[in-house]
Amino acid sequence: MRWTNYARGGSARNAEQGSAGVPPAVARAPRPRSVGLTASTLILLSTLILSGAAPEKHFTVYSVAANYSLSLVQREGRDYVGLLEVLEPLGKVRSKSDGARWRLRYNNVEGDFEVGKSRARIQGLDTELGGRFLVENKRGLVPVSALSSILPRFLGGPVTLHEDSGRLFIGSVATHFTASLATDNSSRLVFNFTGPVNPTVATEPGKLRMTFSREPVVAPASSTLTFGSKAIQSASYSESNGTAVVTVNSTIPVIASFSNDGRTVTISPSSAAAAAAQNGTPAAAGTPAPSEPPAAANNAGPQVFRRYFAVIDASHGGEDHGETLSASLLEKDVTVALARSLRQELESRGITTLVLRDSDANLSLDQRAIFANADHAAIYVALHAASNGHGVRVYTALLPFGDDDRGPFRSWTLAQHGSLPLSRSTASAVAAELQKRQIPVRTLGASLRPLNNLTGAAIAVEVAPQGSELSQLTAPDYQQLITSAVATAIAATHDQLGAAP
């Protein structure tokens, strides 16, 4: 027999890690990365499954030490999870097996389990598991329901288990929130959170959804909140598959913006709804915002010179590895390969293209934005890679709350404001091309730098395996399938993109 040692933070990723360089003032943002994601991420804690098949079941743990997500398995009619994987990010863990006996030591606490038995001894005390203990590939599996009795003995403190939704809170780590209409405007709904949040935001006619994959957001006193507003009528809270979701129901198109270091989220009418209100005409929920004049159009000035039509940005690089996709595969290497493939696809369509990072170089997020803005690129595309989910996510900026600049200077955090409608239409075109190739795809908004610092159209494309094999990320045919779709969409919107100054 041999003890196997595990140090804290081994295989599970910490949700606090986020995408390198993401400004804390906006939120712990996610690049589209893995959880711990990552940005990760990530996480990873961002567990959106892009295929039409039944989503993989996930289990999310929130603690002071780390927030992380694990996969669940179905055994004997109930959900099981690896006990070692649950404890590994929290402290020093050792395990060993001897026939049917499986022992685990967390710090100075030892547990004794036996295959096929529904009872274990932890700290010398009997503990009911509510189901048989199983070992698969040397992994000790316990029913999820057993964690509420197992973990307090190992950790020496209270835990709160939300078994139905797959969420576990260790200690007092919950993030609470309130929601109320702005005192100066009944068409704005303000959420205040006790800690920074950075949800994934998605919209559909009549609804805006904020999905919290990393943050320990918990329900308010009532799961349904109603407001005395004709524009924003109610909000509801729900949990499932390791995430929490807040859904805002509205009669007009709305958008989300962030402030107060990510602790405040304001839901307000979109540009289309605001314009309709000024004109006295109703705007239907889900109506896309009309094209707004780009920021440069608000000021008289000479025609700009554009050396490159498209700027492609291979995210991460140098000391910033991005997500560790496998023991031998880093995100920064995949993004370079994707960038080179996309450049080839664009140039074959007659589109002049610059790859910002064509080697293992360090580039800050501000540098990336400055280079693209200085060249007046018609379209900026950031490339990311992820191990979680399936297919592709296409992101546009999610701007912090504030008004657009109308003077000769631009706010760095709001530079994307004037070009956001064009960015969204480009993202939709990319998604449509990917769907034609039967690649699962979603379009989302995210507080993902440097998108909000770009003065022209800007999107981020995050590529995950189409199936279950990570090796797909490095397969030339799969990479070309993705980059060909992106290039085709950009070529199709060439005139629209090129018309923007």
What CATH calls the topology of the largest domain is Aminopeptidase
Number of helices: 8
Name given to the CATH homologous superfamily of the largest domain: Zn-dependent exopeptidases
CATH architecture of the largest domain: 3-Layer(aba) Sandwich
Quote the beta fraction: 25-35%
Strand arrangement, largest sheet?
1-6-7-8-9-10
For the secondary structure, the number of strands is 31
Helix content: 10-25%
CA radius of gyration is 24 Å
Structural class by secondary-structure content: alpha+beta
Question: Quick one: biggest sheet?
Answer: 6 strands, antiparallel
Q: Uncertain runs with pLDDT below 50, 5 residues or more?
A: 1-53, 272-304
The top-level CATH class of the largest domain is Alpha Beta
Number of folding domains? 3
Could you tell me how far the N terminus lies from the C terminus, measured between alpha carbons in angstroms?
Answer: 69 Å
Q: Specify the overall morphology.
A: globular
Q: Let me know the average pLDDT.
A: 80
What is the strand and helix layout of this fold?
Elements: E1 4-6, E2 58-62, E3 67-71, E4 73-75, E5 78-82, H1 83-87, E6 93-98, E7 101-106, E8 109-114, E9 119-122, E10 125-128, E11 134-136, E12 139-143, H2 147-155, E13 159-162, E14 167-170, E15 177-182, E16 185-193, E17 200-204, E18 207-212, E19 224-226, E20 232-240, E21 243-250, E22 254-259, E23 264-269, H3 271-279, E24 310-314, E25 324-326, E26 329-330, H4 331-347, E27 353-355, H5 365-374, E28 379-385, E29 392-397, H6 420-436, E30 441-446, E31 457-463, H7 476-492, H8 494-499
Parallel strand pairs: 2-14, 24-27, 24-28, 28-31, 29-30
Antiparallel strand pairs: 1-6, 2-3, 4-5, 5-12, 6-7, 7-8, 8-9, 9-10, 11-12, 13-14, 15-16, 16-23, 17-18, 18-21, 19-20, 20-21, 22-23, 25-26, 29-31
Helix pairs in contact: 4-7, 6-7
